[in-house]
Predict the 3D structure of the following.
Amino acid sequence: MRVLRRILITLSCLIALPMLAQAHEFKAGDLVIEHPWTRATTSQNGVAYMVIDNNGKQADKLIAVSSSVSDMPMLHTNYMDGDVMKMRMVDAIDIPAGGKAELKPGGFHVMLMGLKAPFKEGQMIPMTLTFEKAGKVDVELMVEAAGASGAMH
């Protein structure tokens, strides 16, 4: 019985390890940056996504991004112009007090223009986020498969 219990505990831990490896977060004051991620790339551009929770009583803004792997990291959003989806640069992304900002496919995101090398699945990519109130925080983007949709985040 004891051996069976140990086997079950070991199996439970092995099953949970991949989930723990994918879930990573970073903190900046009252902000929690949940699972920043990107896709494997084949071009000179990449895109970063994440959820930023604001557990504080004051709104904040993501005002800048930087990364040693990209010549021009920028804050962007997608929008519809008639029947055409377009993208444009934004100055900031609002994070309401007690709320969150979702950087996801089809919405707000970080464009990483001019990549110095392609992103490979499993790699961790350094990036610095700058917030109006919380200041700078270093995060790591987890590189997922080229076709990842972010549904598991």
Summary: The domain at 25-144 is CATH 2.60.40.1890 (Immunoglobulin-like).
